[in-house]
Design brief:
Largest sheet of chain B: 4 strands, parallel
Strand content of chain B: 5-15%
Number of domains of chain B: 2
Oligomer: heterodimer
Helix content of chain B: 40-55%
CATH topology of the largest domain in chain B: Rossmann fold
Shape of chain A: elongated
Keywords (chain B): 4Fe-4S, Iron, Iron-sulfur, Metal-binding, Oxidoreductase
Number of domains of chain A: 2
InterPro entries (chain B): Cys_rich_dom, HdrC_iron-sulfur_subunit
Distance between the termini of chain B: 10 Å
CATH architecture of the largest domain in chain B: 3-Layer(aba) Sandwich
Organism (chain B): Sphingobacterium micropteri
Structural class of chain A: mainly alpha
Order of helices and strands of chain B: HEHHEHHEHEHEHEHEHEH
Strand order of the largest sheet of chain B: 2-1-3-4
Number of strands of chain A: 0
Pfam family, one (chain B): CCG
Protein name (chain B): (Fe-S)-binding protein
Distance between the termini of chain A: 96 Å
């Protein structure tokens, strides 16, 4: 009975804290500007199904994709086991689903192999991340906390799966010893190999089984609440993020409607001047981004496929699309805290541009869309970079000198170079 | 022979009471850059050869505004766009072929919302359809037969608009030894010119992007790299020069290759 009460309290606490974190993130995303991404629902569902559920873009790199698939499928399906653990915990039962008979045995059989797949993949991931020199796992933005974060997640998953397998092994051994509280249920293709490691004493076995059970469930509840402060939110946000993807060609950049009004009024003086007050052209801080840009930032799991494909980054420039996303998320979290503390945003003399992202980074982009193409969950760092450039150019007139010269040529000669408009067709007369 | 080709302007055609079936949008590079002018002329030769009624805007053409937009100057972009749209709509233009993927992308994707609705194709798509219709056929024993040729995907044709097949199909009819670069199609590596980089010095780094790309070309052991963008052309040629491979590797536009293969 005591166990049930403790379980209930822990479970309720975990759910409440998670709900609060989820609400905080939702509110932060809502700080972004409006953008319509709810058209063409069928197309969007299809895209989500292919890219998030089917992990289509992951398979551009088959080896990590297969290992990741092991973790992904394992994670999804072992959640059925979690359901059983929660029911057992709340009602004091033991393996409640075992009344399903041979179907249950089949389930446990599958879980065992999946747990092994998760364990195996995570070990390989740890080795890849820490010992093999893989380009996307290096980079200046992946030092310190982000590096620890990634390792913590992998170690947590390894510990959770180890606990799960030891729980099963102890349970199996107790079943073999015909302990009355452990009825025969399940099939243990993996954990059977752990039997020789276990003692013969039933009381110690029960201790191991109970410890592993509690460790597993507390671990999962803790992991649930670690998600919102880690890079790992993609396991949830990958789905909405792919659903709300840009459906137009990647080369199509939005035309700013506020500019259209002004330009129309400039070209045709008979039109009334635009009425709507534009607060700011381009992106200075996270509030100037769209909610989809902000959702992108929370979805990013820092895998670095974008950065490894970025022509600027791989030739040694400062720009890293992954850092753009991480900076956006970090600044957004800071702005969110600022608002929570002061009830409205108080100027903190910081901004996304300069404090987080430097001019050198934004001007190194070739707008080639390699980062957008590479992202397995359809994040668009390019849109943020262009927004920052728009702020630098239209609000501050702070473009590199040669870019300003190009603008001047465009205005005066209708070409980016210093050639006279009248000479444009000279080639056709040679 | 180049001198004999008369390239009509839309204004000239209208004055004669005629109308072009397709507008050839030359672009700034194709108009002013000496190397790109040769691509422009190759396209004209092809259009002339197949008897398409085409015209250029001549001095009435203006930059589409692409470099301004990618550099963050939305005002300048929209000014350029609206002036161009006024000219194009004034001439009731419905179909445009461009020699540059940047012009192609901007005209096709970013003009409609500002009032410019045209059917826009890139010259590799036009050439591909002419080949498919049987109007273009490489001459027997064309000079590319058996040559090792690779193709560099321009970002604004490939990833930006998912045109991957048309340029490849144009090269396939040459009976050449075609080889892909290790980073190709949606994984293609930028030449380094996009996003207005063409008009500025690169940021400090280990090497230039075009050099990185030319290393892919060298690795492919191709003797000809086909481009489909005047900016890629400049960057690849500079990269080949930087690697001192001018004797071994030639950079040619798909249109130039087609014109040569057809002995135009």
């Amino acid at each position: 009975m005591m166990g049930q009460i403790i379980f209930f309290c822990l479970f309720a606490l975990a759910v409440v804290i998670f709900a609060r974190n989820a609400r905080r993130i939702y509110k932060n995303i809502k700080l972004g500007k409006a953008i319509n991404r709810s058209d063409r629902p069928v197309e969007r569902l299809k895209l989500m199904f292919l890219v998030a559920f089917g992990q289509k873009k992951m398979f551009k790199k088959p080896l990590p994709a297969l290992l990741h698939l092991g973790v992904y499928v394992g994670f999804c399906i072992i959640n059925i086991e979690m359901l059983e653990i929660v029911i057992d915990g709340l009602f004091g039962t033991h393996r409640i689903f075992s009344s399903l008979g041979s179907f249950y045995d089949g389930l446990i059989y599958a879980f065992e192999w999946l747990a092994f797949a998760v364990l195996f993949s995570c070990v390989i991931f740890l080795i890849r991340r820490n010992f093999l020199h893989i380009y996307r796992f290096s980079g200046r933005e992946l030092k310190n906390w982000p590096k620890t974060d990634a390792n913590l997640i992998l170690i947590a998953e390894i510990l959770l799966m180890t606990a799960f397998l030891f729980m099963n092994a102890a349970d199996f051994k107790l079943q073999q010893l015909n302990h009355p509280a452990y009825h025969h249920a399940g099939a243990f293709p993996v954990s059977q190999f752990l039997l020789p490691l276990l003692p013969e004493s039933t009381s110690i076995l029960i201790g191991i089984e109970r410890f592993a059970w509690w460790f597993h469930i507390i671990g999962v509840l803790a992991f649930l609440n670690y998600l919102p402060i880690s890079k790992h939110l993609h396991i949830i946000l990958a789905f909405p993020n792919t659903y709300f993807s840009k459906l137009e060609p990647k080369g199509k950049f939005n035309n700013m409607p506020a500019v259209t009004e002004e330009v129309k009024a400039m070209l045709d003086p008979s039109l009334p001047p635009p009425t709507g007050e534009v607060s700011r052209f381009g992106v200075k801080d996270v509030q100037d981004l769209t909610w989809k840009n902000l959702l992108d930032a929370y979805t990013c799991t820092e895998c670095g496929r974008c950065t490894a494909a970025c022509p600027a980054n791989i030739t040694g420039k400062l720009l890293s699309p992954r850092k753009i996303m991480m900076d956006t998320r970090d600044r957004l979290a800071e702005v969110g805290q600022n608002i929570a503390k002061n009830s409205a945003f108080q100027d903190d003399n910081k901004s996304l541009i300069d404090t987080y992202i430097t001019r050198e980074e934004i001007w190194a982009c070739t707008t080639c869309n390699a980062c957008v193409e590479a992202c397995p969950v359809n994040i668009d760092p390019l849109e943020i970079i262009i927004g920052l450039r728009q702020y630098a150019v239209m609000e501050e007139s702070q473009a590199p000198a040669s870019i300003n010269a190009m603008f001047g040529n465009l205005e005066n000669n209708g070409a980016p170079w210093k050639y006279a408009q009248a000479d444009r067709a000279n080639w056709s007369k040679e | 022979m180049e001198n004999q080709l008369h390239i009509p302007t839309v204004a000239e055609m209208i004055a004669k009471g005629e109308r072009p079936d397709i507008l050839f949008w030359v672009g700034c590079a194709g108009s002013f850059d000496e190397r790109a002018q040769r691509i422009t002329k190759s396209i004209c030769k092809i259009l002339h050869h197949v008897g398409i009624k085409y015209a250029i805007l001549g001095t009435e053409e203006n930059c589409t505004g692409d470099p301004a937009k990618r550099a963050g100057n939305e005002f300048l972009f929209q000014m350029q766009a609206m002036m161009n749209i006024e000219v194009l709509n004034g001439y009731e233009i419905t179909k445009i072929v461009t020699a540059c993927p940047h012009c192609f992308n901007t005209l096709k994707n970013e003009y409609p919302n500002l009032g410019g609705n045209f059917e826009v194709i890139h010259h590799t798509q036009l050439i591909q359809s002419l080949i498919a219709e049987g109007k273009l056929k490489p001459a027997d024993g064309n000079e590319f037969k058996g040559k090792r040729i690779t193709y560099h995907d321009p970002c604004y044709l490939g990833r930006a608009n998912e045109v991957y097949e048309a340029p490849r199909q144009v090269l396939e009819v040459l009976d050449a030894d075609l080889v892909e670069l290790k980073r190709c199609r949606s994984n293609g590596l930028c030449c380094g010119a996009g996003g207005a980089q063409m008009f500025k010095e690169p940021e400090p780094g280990r090497k230039d992007i075009n050099v990185e790309r030319v290393e892919d070309v060298i690795e492919s052991r191709a003797t000809i790299v086909a481009a489909a963008c005047p900016f890629c052309m400049t960057m690849l040629r500079d990269g080949v020069k930087a690697k001192e491979k001018e004797q071994e590797i030639q950079v040619l536009d798909v249109a130039e290759i087609t014109a040569k293969a057809n002995k135009l």
